[in-house]
């Protein structure tokens, strides 16, 4: 009988293993290692994300139960304590570097041209327990962190991630983010900083964000808008010349304010440095900001990162990096199948058949290995 690899093996083919090995060598990740190499560690964590494991013990048991199928997938059974020690001490730069490499690979197949790229910037809160208080203490008895993300709305995937303690302001993290000249950046009130806006503007980027209700605009032009439409006004003007403590405002170029009434009846003041696009286009760009909120919800619920497998900053950074790597792998595999399934439905089928010996493009086929290969039964098992 012809050998058939597992679904997990097919997914690992998207991992740039040569690049991973280079990162391990560069950061001396395997220096002094006797039992669990970084490749074994990553394979175990990736298996945990794709299988929906919620504990290190579940990863240990899952890999042990499939030990006869691990030889071809760069994996082996691991001890829970050994994996915990590795997550606490191995260089997180190896995993974030792999995420960057895979992100570039994903963009070659998923994103459109730079001129059409829309980047959404936001952060999501991560609840931690008291074991993380040494680095993520927010207040008495409360610990938390933030994942700061740049999300490519055209490609439907993240392009940047940073993790900070929860008490770090969003704008502080944003000032360290890479800026891609010519792209559009959409963000909310957490990034209200005239100096950062000026930096984006100087880089040729289009800005779409919210105006605070108490920020005045010195109007120099009023543009016509359709009657009885969602767009209430379209104005061009200048920000205040002075900031708090009489500091000079670094953003001196004209800006545009588009007032729009949304479905709930609330009126939003949308700011942009694009003086040429239609008011409807600007309002539509800001509305796309919700795509990153949906991404956060998808990753937290589907890849099970509401509960963390470690308490140290290093372990949490590693788990988040591997979760985003798993997301990119699923996104690439889903795009390659052209099956008509949603990404969520595809992910559920992958999880149900992860270690089954079948082709990934046959998840909905009739070449049955176990009863759970039936899609109806597979969904019932979730």
Could you walk me through the main structural features you see in this protein, from its secondary elements to its overall organization?
The chain is α+β, with helices and mostly antiparallel strands. Among the domains are: 160 residues, no CATH class; 101 residues, no CATH class. Helix content is 39%, strand content 18%. Strands 1, 2, 3, 4, 5, 6, 7, 8, 9 and 10 form a ten-stranded mixed beta sheet that branches. The longest helix has 25 residues. The radius of gyration is 24 Å and the shape is elongated.
Q: How many β-strand stretches?
A: 10
Number of helices: 14
Low-confidence regions: 366-382
Quaternary: single chain
Using the alpha-carbon principal axes, give the shape.
elongated
Distance between the termini: 31 Å
Largest sheet: 10 strands, mixed
- The fraction of residues assigned to DSSP E strands is 15-25%
Topology as H/E string?
A: HHHHHHEHEEEHEHEEEEEHHHHH
Structural class of the secondary elements?
alpha+beta
Mean of the pLDDT scores? 86
State the helical fraction: 25-40%
Gyration radius from CA atoms, angstroms: 24 Å
